[in-house]
Amino acid sequence: MRSSTLTKILAVGAASALALTACSSERSTDSAESTTEAESSTETTEGSEVCFGEGATIGVALPQKTSENWVLAEELFNDGLAEAGYEPLVQFANGGVTEQQNQIDSMVQQGAEVIIVGAIDGSQLGGQLQSAKDSGATVIAYDRLVKNTDAVDAYIAFDNYQVGVLQGEALLQGLAERQGEGPYNIELIAGSADDANSIPFFEGAMSVLQPKIDDGTLTVVSGQTTFEQAATQGWKAENAQKRMDTILSGSYSGDTPLHGVLSPNDTLARAALTSVSQAGKDTPVITGQDSEVESVKSIVAGEQYSTIYKDTRELVAQSIASVNALAACEEIPINDTESYDNGVKVVPSYLLEPIIVTQENAAEVYANDSTLAPLTEG
Ligand code: BGC
């Protein structure tokens, strides 16, 4: 089992501690219910425990840059971890799954104490995360759950199922507000099938929309109602746009109106809107997620109907707070122990609340966001 040599103690409740010694970073891995906890540590002369300290390597494996939130996360992790005294190792895997697997292996080799993972494919990291656990590191799934493995200690995310519920509700609300009385013609877009978030997004939305499809309020004119039919490989805009082009030419010829579109995020919403406008159709009510700059502008201008605010600053801060807890030999803060089953265990989670944003509440929701607030002014 790897031992890490420590230099200093972090300011995580141990600011005045004196002793700076090495301690084993071996941690328990055997409980699905409890959070991670150090098995052995060093006690300082003042009684504060230290499991790892200043200069400890913290790995952050991010996926591809498929939305602005990931780019922001990179910067926030680099700055926040460095500020807390750690050595951040933050990497994107734009080349795909193999690159991400290699990056995690390399983080393990470099002695990372904690590995925070935003998985490209949540089902393909089992081997790498097991090696991480075997080395004594703690594994935290960030934003996206990792599936079918025991080798994950905690999950920190915005509640993905709730994101979908909010999107479904926003679509219904937007249809009633902007498209008059139903019934309404809609289409469904889902995220990438390899991202563990895509199914909870879709299922959350369908929990709201399916009853309205069943009672005839909504008609999916293309007939493409399953997740598999609606999925967008790699979260790529061009894939969503191509699929929408095909649906529009096949199912919306002549004057058939498209009243609404369920889109799982902003990038795909804008792609769908491009397709609709190229087909010469009126703008449908369309949902989104991520509060990307272009989409917030579009919402303020009355085009895209809604987005979701998942403040990346909060998510990264919660992740760094967990690293600090581990450094002080404490448990990772958890507020949910039943929602996210990864196929092998229910992963103890810290879930943050997503917020729905429309033209009506944008200024209020973004009031404390220095990038987005100015977009809502005037
Ligand atoms: C994230 C979304 C994002 C999508 C594509 C998902 O896992 O939760 O916020 O839009 O990935 O990047």
UniProtKB/TrEMBL annotation:
UniProt GO MF annotations: carbohydrate binding
Annotated signal sequence range: 1-24
Periplasmic binding protein domain segment(s): 58-328
Coiled coil region boundaries: none
Primary localization: other
UniProt KW keywords: Signal
SUPFAM superfamilies: Periplasmic binding protein-like I
GO CC terms: outer membrane-bounded periplasmic space
InterPro entries referenced in this protein's UniProt entry, alphabetically: Bact_Solute-Bind_Prot2 (IPR050555), Peripla_BP_I (IPR028082), SBP_2_dom (IPR025997)
Positions of region (Disordered): 25-48
Location(s) in or outside the cell: Cell envelope
Source species, domain of life: Bacteria
Protein name per Swiss-Prot or TrEMBL: Monosaccharide ABC transporter substrate-binding protein (CUT2 family)
